[in-house]
Design goal:
Layout: E1 2-9, E2 15-22, E3 29-36, H1 56-59, E4 63-68, H2 85-96, E5 101-110, H3 112-118, E6 128-134, H4 141-144, E7 145-146, E8 149-150, H5 156-164, H6 173-176, H7 184-189, H8 194-201, H9 207-210, E9 225-230, H10 236-245, H11 248-252, E10 255-259, H12 283-293, E11 305-309, E12 314-318, E13 326-330, E14 335-337, E15 344-350, E16 377-381, E17 388-402, E18 408-417, E19 420-430, H13 431-434, E20 444-457, E21 462-468, E22 493-499, E23 504-507
Parallel strand pairs: 3-4, 3-5, 5-6, 6-9, 9-10, 10-11, 14-16
Antiparallel strand pairs: 1-2, 2-4, 7-8, 11-12, 13-14, 13-23, 15-22, 16-21, 17-20, 17-22, 17-23, 18-19, 18-21
């Protein structure tokens, strides 16, 4: 095993620090290529080769190339998040000139380490043989904006930190609450970061998003792909959409693995036990080996979604998510019931300047008791009579109204086991997204899908749904008509849900 530390020179002259671990003293090797913005500068301290002694890629005969992205770590230049295509293509050209390159490249990474590879696959380089990409999506619009609400809010410190090569962790909720939200980067780092402003202002899926480097990727992929994500990751909906948009030919040779994880590909920090929730440690390198050697992939079924059933503690496979059909009706007595209730109304107050601080949806947690917070309506089902499997997106169908010209409605769904609530999935929408001509006092129909989830509701357990108007993933809606990033006024809303025969939560029963 050998170590080389060098710089790849990009087409504009900027040099990117690149570390190479070669498994043998001579010969040619397949390449595993990874890029990261998260390594700190080395300050001249050489890399310790011993840290790669147990690296599975190297142990399986791959040369590992580890690179610092532009403007981070020991690389030159200035970081511009999500603009990684040219550096990726230039780096591939540099790899092809290495004397030990055998003509094949495999790319992998999670989160932003996946983004850097999603920025160039539309060019379909012939020597990239397979990819293993996790906890990240293309079409970043659907991460930044969701049903008329701003999802960019929770990633503000990350984005501005990476763009400025520092991490202003104090620049968080309090500063971001100052309106107009469009000026948030100016308040935090002293100047507009135009890329960030453009992402805030383009709140519909338009050519701005389609033309992003990672904007329309899934349709272009021709290589085998191993996707991995967790039910509690904020990218889960987008990764399902990527899988669904693969061509049938690409999907047949690819795999999608979904576990009980947050923003990771392993059980980490969970407050619910997942004894069998981790994948095999070598499932990624085994995938690459199967493509390289033309042998069957032994860990998961090709062309299918392999997923862990939350609360069921088992892995299973399915071709496509199930359409939501089993209905639980919202009752004014705060129940989720098998039959519709007579019409009644429940209301609550929502103040954007004093938003309820839900925990971020990035793992599974023991959650607050129902009916324990102002501004939240909790609904709970009867205990399940038998174990029931679910796989897919839940559907929230209900009429609502408000005394303002616009507002948001948010729902989080839980399962309740032994009296403890655990989060499952959630959904949000603004009324103007559903009805652009909405006016105060009108009834408006919510009919949206939550993120997907696979779980087993055990006999004796319950379903719980909380309805409110805010989550910490999203910028608090100002209850004012207009572009959410430009409005300066704020109103307190009296929001109302209507419990009747059209108010239900539909669950995707698997059997």
């Amino acid at each position: 095993m050998r170590l080389k530390e060098m710089y790849f020179t990009m087409s504009d002259g900027v040099r990117l620090y690149t570390r190479i671990i070669i498994p043998g003293d001579s010969g040619k090797f397949p390449i595993v290529f990874m890029r990261t913005p998260y390594d700190r500068p080395s300050n001249g301290v050489p890399c310790d080769l011993s840290q790669y002694a147990d690296n599975l890629f190297v142990k399986n005969g791959y040369a590992l190339i580890w690179q610092h992205t532009r403007g981070t770590g020991d690389s030159e230049g200035f970081s511009r998040p999500y603009h990684e295509r040219q550096d990726g293509l230039d780096s591939l050209d540099c790899i092809r000139k290495l004397p030990f390159y055998d003509g094949s490249i495999y790319v992998t990474g999670g989160s932003y380490l996946s983004t850097v590879h999603l920025c160039y696959p539309s060019t379909n380089p012939p020597d990239i043989k397979a990819a293993a990409l996790s906890i990240q999506q293309d079409r970043m619009y659907y991460w930044r904006h969701h049903n008329g609400c701003c999802r960019n809010y929770c990633s503000l410190p990350w984005y501005l930190g990476l763009a400025k090569r520092q991490y202003p962790v104090q620049a968080a909720i309090e500063d971001a609450l100052i309106r107009p939200y469009r000026d948030v980067s100016k308040r935090v780092v002293g100047e507009d970061i135009q890329d960030h402003v453009d992402m805030l202002l383009n709140d519909t899926y338009n050519d701005f998003w389609k033309n992003q480097e990672n904007g329309e990727v899934a349709e272009t992929l021709q290589i085998p792909v191993l996707f991995s994500d967790g039910w509690f990751d904020f990218y889960i909906d987008g990764m399902f959409a990527m899988w669904e948009r693969l061509s049938s030919e690409t999907r047949e040779k690819s795999v999608f693995v979904v576990g009980p994880w947050g923003h990771a590909t392993m059980v980490r920090g969970s407050e619910y036990p997942f004894p069998h929730g981790n994948p095999p440690k070598d499932y990624v390198v085994n995938f690459f080996n199967s493509v390289r050697d033309g042998t069957p992939y032994r860990d998961y079924a090709l062309g299918r979604i392999s997923f862990y059933s939350v609360a069921g503690d088992y892995w299973t496979t399915d071709a496509v998510p199930v359409e939501a059909e089993k209905r639980l009706y919202f009752g004014a007595d705060r129940t989720l019931r098998k039959a519709p209730a007579s019409r009644d109304e429940l209301g609550y107050d929502y103040d954007p300047d004093r938003p309820l601080h839900y925990y971020r949806f990035d793992n599974i947690f023991r959650c607050p008791e129902p009916h324990s917070a102002d501004g939240v309506l909790s609904f709970i089902s009867e205990p399940a009579e038998s174990d029931t499997e679910f796989f897919g997106r839940l559907r929230w169908h209900m009429k609502v109204k408000t005394n303002c010209d616009d507002t948001a409605f948010f729902m989080r769904v839980y399962f309740v086991e032994d009296g403890v609530s655990y989060n499952l999935t959630e959904g949000i929408t603004s009324l103007s997204h559903l009805n652009p001509d909405y006016h105060a006092g009108e009834e408006c129909l919510i009919d949206i899908l939550t993120g997907p989830v696979g779980f087993t509701l055990k006999a004796g357990s319950r379903i719980r749904a909380d309805i409110s108007s805010h989550s910490d993933l999203y910028a608090p809606h100002a209850n004012v008509r207009g572009h959410w990033a430009l409005v300066e006024d704020v109103r307190v809303a009296r929001n109302t849900v209507i419990c009747d025969e059209e108010a239900y939560l539909a669950l995707p029963c698997r059997h």
